[in-house]
Each structure stands twice: as C-alpha cells, then as structure tokens.
Amino acid sequence: MTDFQLSGDKQYDTQDIQQKDKAHHLHPWQVFDVFREEGALPIVAGDNNFIYDADGKKYFDAVGGLWCNNIGLGRKEMAEAIAQQAYQLSYANPFVDLTNAPAAELAAKLAELAPGSLNHVFFTCGGSTAVDTAFRMIHYYQNCRGKHDKKHVISRINSYHGTTYASMSIGGKPGDHPPEFDFISDTIHHLSCPNFYRAPEGMSESDFVEFLIKEFEDKITELGGADKVAAFFAEPIMGAGGVIVAPDGYLKRMRQICKDNDILYVSDEVVTGFGRLGHWFASESEFDIQPDIITCAKGLTSGYQPLGATIFSDEIFDVLNAPDSGRCFAHGFTYSGHPVACVAALKNIEILERDKLLDNVKEVGPYFEQQLKTLEDLPIVGQVRGRKFMMCVEYVADKTTKALFPEELDIGKRVSNHADERGLITRAIVHLNVMSPALTMTRDDVDFIVATLRESIEATIKDLREEGLLAA
Prior knowledge:
- The chain has helices at 14-24, 32-38, 64-67, 76-88, 101-113, 127-144, 165-170, 205-222, 250-260, 282-287, 314-320, 339-354, 357-373, 411-421, 443-466; strands at residues 43-47, 50-53, 58-61, 118-124, 152-156, 188-191, 229-234, 264-268, 293-296, 308-313, 381-387, 390-395, 424-425, 427-429, 432-435.
- By secondary structure, it is α/β, with parallel strands linked by helices.
C-alpha cells in the first residue's frame, strides 16, 4: 500500500521532546493536572494503519488519527502531489475575483459526489470552520429572505460540531462545555440524545422515536414557532459524543419536520463523509435523507492537509445570488481553497476511487461490527455500537442497571493504557473506547484489534478487582 521505511538517520530523544512539549505546547483538550505529570506520547512516523513513537515502538492506530486517516499514512504519491503543487503554486489569494485551478476542480468534484442539489462549495480550514461557516451562512440566508427573526438553531445533547465559538456552542457534549468557557445560549438549543441504550426504562424503540419527535416539535413551538427557528444540525452518526446510531426512522422524521417548518437541515459529515460508512456521504446513501447543507473535513484529505468544506444547495445559493441585490458574502479565510490542500483532496478522492476503499469498508465493516460485538460477554462491557468503520465500546459498572463507573476513574483511559502497552491505539472518552481506523483495514487487522482489546479489558478488570473497585 505504501513505500514506508522507518529511517535510522533521524534519532529522537524522547525525554527531550516530551519536556519541550510539556513546557511550550498547549494541546487540544489538555487535562492540565494529568498532563503536568504524564506529558504526551511523541509520534514520529506512520505507515498505513501503523504509527511509531520516538523510541521506535509500533502501534496499530485504530483511531485513524482523529477519524481522518482514511487512505492510510505514508502514501508516497500523496506526498509527491503535495510537493509538486507547493512548487508550482504554494498559495493563491481566494478572495473576491481570484481563484486557483485545484480549488475550482475540487469544488466541481464535490458537487458531483454530494447528493441532490448540493452544487455549491465554500472551502474552510477544517470541520469546525465548516460548521461555523454553515452557521453564518444560515443567518445570512434568512436575512436575505427578510426573515430576520428566524435565528434559533437546534442541535442535540452529546453532539459534537467543532470548537469555534459558534460550533462548540452548537455541539452538545457536557464535557465540552466547562464553566470556564462561554457559549452562545440564547439562540442555540439542544434536544435529547437519540441513544436508545440510555432511553427511559421500559420504553420501546418506536416509543423512544415518538418521544424524540414530539420533543423537537415542542421545542419549535416553545421558541415561538417555525418563523423563529432557522436550522437543525445533526451528525448522521454522532461521533465524539459516543458513536450514537439513532433508531431507525428517526433522522427521516426529523428531516420531514424541518421541511414542513421551513427549517434548514444541516448534516455534519465531518466524520461520516468520504468512506467511513462505505459512501462518499452517508446522509442519503446510508440514511435516505437529503440535507440542505453538508459540512465535511477529515476524510476529505485523509489528514494529509487541513481542509474543510461547506456544501450547500442550489436553493440556498439562488437566494444568496439574487440579481441586483448588491450583496457581498463577507466571510472567508486566508486559506479558503488553498491550492496545496485542494490538490491533496483531489488525490485523496482519486486513491479512494482507484483502490476501491469504499467497497472495502462495505466488505470488512460488518465483520468489524460482528467481532467487536463478541466483547459484550465481558462483565464491564455494556454495549458495543456503531456502524462499519465507526465503532465504540461503552463500559459500565453494572450491566443490568447500566450504571457507569465514577467519571474520575476514567475507565476508558485505563483500558486504552493497557491497549497501548500491547501495541493498539484506541481513543478513550471517559466511559468509552472509540475506533475509526483507516479504510484500508483488513479482516486480519480486525482480529488483532478485537483480541488485543479483549486482553486489555480483562487486564483492566483484574486491576479493578485488586483495587476493590469491582466485585469478583
């Protein structure tokens, strides 16, 4: 798959890197007390699904970077495409009346791949800025229509939509809303998480869907009716909030309510786009919904370059582009449509198509689901959930009541620490281990992940029992 070779020419001093990192590098989601003591693991090389630390230890990266290494690490042809574009044209001003060839080609390609009438693209620097752009575009669109009171936005608890001021406010993870940060709270609102595993006891799945639908309808009424609500934001599968696959029919019902009430439906496909579920985009192909806007990033370039995109419909564009309006879309970034990033995206899409990686997800993905499900026989595994190459294990202190371990125990991190020792990287999110490997993963890779994770969970159970935190 790659032409990777771990070079012996470059020698790393792990302790020196860690010390410089601790002294000068503020990390996203840095837990200060823990980081102060432990620091970070320095990663210095990558090859397909594997990463190497500064000491040369090899790990299978079941996290796929951060949901983003879709084509795998170390692709020589990708590096060459990036280098050639950097040499030919490293940057071009994207404002007003200038463009560059890679940006124009990529915009056309995304319009071709996106469902329905989503034929227009605004390029951003990543997923957060794609969501932030959608948020601003929605207000602009409503104002252009003369609907100046139509400003409220609705999302879900445990959703994740990014980390700008607006996108983090739209997100609904309680852990991402610490009291030391400020958030938009007057016009952004959150509905219940569509997690049937955590539904009220005794409620059927169909009744749970009805409860969620009524909650949405009631929220619209509470906010003053459809003339007050501008948009609904939803991930097709909720990612960082716990890989939540909503009950059948829920997303279609929510989309229909949006249509009936002139509310824009934004599908956040930053994670699910570009093959993670075996499709270019999951909204229509996997869940049979046609959104008004799709936000994407991550798998768009497989992490080789930072790039995001807000893809929106002809219907929205026609309002923005009304003749003789004298309007200006006063929003953008220095790096919107960056030529090197756009070339990386075009090469990434070429590789996904040529190597039939979406087909690989459809073939290996169900096997990944089935094999991970076997972990549910372990006493602290409450549920294995997800779809194809987007999976999660949730840990519980009591499988009958579904009671969680105390948050400070950080059970997911305990398991991932044991997995690290065995050469497997998973993403720990308090009570969870999340996995989103490169789309090149094979059945043999799946077997390694599941066997290693089982050993790591069993080692954690042993620790808990020795510490008196879990009954024998």
